[in-house]
Amino acid sequence: MQLLKDKIRNEAKIIDNRIIKVDNFLNHQLDITLFNEIGKEFKRRFAGKEITKIVTIETSGIAIASIVAQYFDNVPVVFAKKHAGLNMNQDVFEAKVYSYTKEQEYSIKISKEFLRPNDKVLIIDDFLASGSALMGLINLLSQSSVEISGAGIVIEKTFQEGRKRILEKGIQLESLAIIDSIKDGQVIFK
């Protein structure tokens, strides 16, 4: 997706040749025009799939998933919570996830009332690196017996091998900007 690649090339900040900081358009300040194009592109890539729910992880995935949902007939968006409050149902599906950027493990949870065995789920997230977050979501979703129709990722870093882990599960994986490497502060796209 050229618009996204241009945004990354022109506006992303590279930290230590391993972290791509895109908070000025993707996961802190949001470029809604870009998000609409992301939604259209995911709809095109998953056009042959029946989708009844979109699932993501808080926080960065929520805004993206919400815009994407509009292109799938406004299906509900369900997000896995990292911090369950007192008001969250205690009957949950739960999995562990290791955060690459925060360098810590945490639990993600989705209330069982929001996932049914007849659901056909599209996973949407902002990044795929080592695959820990996506694998945690896949583990959580497998507990609910939903059908995973695919996974849509905005930015993928192939040099961290998350793709391999997801494809081994037999899940259709579509990434809009695939980064092969980062050298001298420059992003090299696949």
Descriptors:
Pur/Pyrimidine_PRTase; six-stranded mixed β-sheet; glycosyltransferase; Rossmann fold; 5 helices; PRTase_dom; about 190 residues; two-stranded antiparallel sheet; transferase
Summarize the structure.
Residues 23-172 form the Phosphoribosyltransferase domain. This protein has a single domain, classed as Rossmann fold (3-Layer(aba) Sandwich).
Description:
This protein has 190 residues and is α/β, with parallel strands linked by helices. Helix content is 28%, strand content 35%. The chain has five helices and ten strands; from the N terminus they run H-E-E-H-E-H-E-E-E-E-H-E-H-E-E. A six-stranded mixed β-sheet has the order 4-3-7-8-9-10, with helices on both faces. Helix 2 packs across helix 3. The longest helix is centred in the N-terminal third of the chain and has 14 residues, at 32-45. The chain is globular and about 45 Å long. The model has no long low-confidence stretch (mean pLDDT 94).
